[in-house]
Amino acid sequence: MKYGFFDDNNKEYVITTPKTPLPWINYLGCKDFFTLLSNTCGGYTFYKDAKLLRMTRYRYNDTTPDTNGKYFYIKDGDTIWNPGWQPTKTELDSYECRHGIGYSKFTGVKNDIEAALVTFVPFDDPVELTKVTLTNKGNTKKDITLFSYVEWCLWNADDDMKNYQRNLSIGEVEVIDSTIYHKTEYRERRNHYAVYSVNAKIDGFETSRDEFRGAYNGPDKPAAVIEGKLHNTIASGWYPIASHQLNVSLNPGESKTFVFALGYVENAEDDKWEKPGVINKKKATALLSKYQTTEDFDKAFAALNAYWNDLLSKFHIESKDEHVNRMVNIWNQYQCMVTFNMSRSASYYETGIGRGMGFRDSCQDLLGFVHLIPDRARERIIDIASTQFQDGSAYHQYQPLTKKGNSDIGSGFNDDPLWLIAGTSAYIRETGDTSILNETVPYDNDMSVATSLMEHLKRSFDYIVNHKGPHDLPLIGRADWNDCLNLNCFSEHPGESFQCFGPSEGPVAESVFIAGMFVKYGREYADLCKLMGDNAEADRALAEVDKMIKAIEKDGWDGEWFVRAYDAYSHKVGSKECDEGQIYIEPQGMCVMAGVGVEDGNAKKALDSVKEKLDTKYGVMILQPAYTRYHLELGEITSYPPGYKENAGIFCHNNPWISIAETCIGRGDRAFEVYKKTCPSYIEDISEIHRTEPYVYSQMVAGADAKFHGEAKNSWLTGTAAWTFTNISQYILGIYPTLEGLSVNPCTPAEFGDFNVTRVYRGVTYNIEIKNPNKVQKGVASLLVDGKEIEGNIIPFDGSKKTVNVVATMK
């Protein structure tokens, strides 16, 4: 069942009913100012940090009702309605929401009044703009009233929802003309405030939630709107809001347009006060003055569209498969940009309070957006590396505002160090910029112990070398990529409390997954060493990689698939010897991606086992059989019911690893089959089962053991976005950036057909035509570059050219 449709020409998903299975959202903002906006106008806004600089309030554990947002109420006689349907839920004569790239549009019609909203965040300014156009579609004059509404958050979102004894006394606002100032805590220690303004003379305002709603009323039945009049109350403490009243008369066929601006303003400390107790409004005035007319709005909107069109043109495919075209050209790359901005911090599944930027997460996200904004990727790498410790380990998360590591989460996730190598390697392969390796980068943000980024990579590599267990496999620490696989938990006496470390000799649980990572990214580290002229270090690294391959082959192979790990007692995890959890997806993907088992046939055996034991119609499950009881020695992974999350759910994040692994052994049909099962566009028809947005990837889908097999959760902010784009663009379509130049080596289904890719690489535009006359799955017979045949499949980079034309013919 569908709840809308793709409009590929306009790069929009069109939602035709407000009653979607879950709120279907969009992200507005490109730099520091962001809004999450649902298809019924729910959501929230923040500046830089969703925890520390939250501007508008949102209520959690209320996902489907989605009842707090930025609303416009229309009172037409006794009828009160919202263009986005929420929160009054008045049935509309027609409804449409168009989520576009960095903007959303809403059109609601009721009783011959059409209300059209366009909302976006300009590229360069910390302000959300909404253009509201009211049109009389009837034959008689209409006198209606328009009310705006936002509820302010008291900046720190965590404190805002818990510290009532203080917060109910600190709300402060000010109203000048048509601008409402949210200046809560400005007098204490802040030099920032928020504004909500409209470019017209208002007929009233309200800043107190209690006055707006009335006692015991929710946002669906606000007393002031029912009355048809705001009371011009200045809030003092309690719950500050911002609401404007506009009385509007419309003749038949007449339209009137208003521009609303919700902005963040930060003054320098010297400019904090105009006079004692009165905030300095000069910056607010300057900001708002830029967006006072519909022409100002339209100009900024056109600039935003131009920005996104240029950005998304950097990788563009034309094939006979419309699903591949729309996901690669539009939605997958767009989601990669959103995950770059948000990491895993702020979504409808992450509150923005408990998590900041992830070390592992942000490094993986680099893989999907580095081709779009390499300069900002460079900054992100430095930020991430700055949270690393001197021994090569790192804070697992850091706060985006302070760039400081999150001590609440701490370190100990032993896969983290290798992801820094992965992200840095991807950046250098994309840009050729080796100067980043000479950048001076601190440890734990302490410049007194700063070293070069190259040294950081060495310590990342050596952290694994220096932390191995009894099978010469990497120690897992608190966990590896699977945060819930906590193998160093034990208790010597059943019934007693347990601690998360191993027996007396220390935590000795080992990860075959990290071993595969070490082989893959250890080789990439060696390549960087060679590039920098350090052949001795490259040789040392490759020798360590060879040792790890031998350890995997000796103790990481179970006969038909790779073992997942060894627990603190050296018992196998993910082995045929286990009653439950006999096979896991992660090492099958990562070890084969690293090349382990490709030559001796074990890679094929492992991937055949994945298809036989883990595959479903909705994707590949993370493990099987599911755990049916709690295993202390395995930790949180067994706390989930069978089929959900890490306990045999379908993690869309690592399905691309299996697809990539299939390309490594040349099976294009199977690689594409795996790709399609979690690709949103292909499964739009089952939206009533899938439930999350049909235009972006979700983190997980309920597995075969779950009651609701096929139901998705945790959409938008997931490494699925970056890994899927890496899979489809670099491995299936085969346009892979190397240190020397672009490699062209597709691995596609036999029936995929010819296709064309436009790829901007290091400032040069490559027009690549792929021909497959014999319907093979992998292999390039000839490669013509500007009409000349070259050997191999790597196009040597030539920065003197602006355009390169390539024709690749598959064998």
From TrEMBL:
Keywords: Glycosyltransferase, Transferase. Coiled coil: none annotated. GO terms for molecular function: carbohydrate binding; glycosyltransferase activity. Residues 11-293 form the Glycosyl hydrolase 94 supersandwich domain. Residues 307-734 form the Glycosyl hydrolase 94 catalytic domain. GO terms for biological process: carbohydrate metabolic process. The keyword Ribosomal protein does not apply. This is Cellobiose phosphorylase.
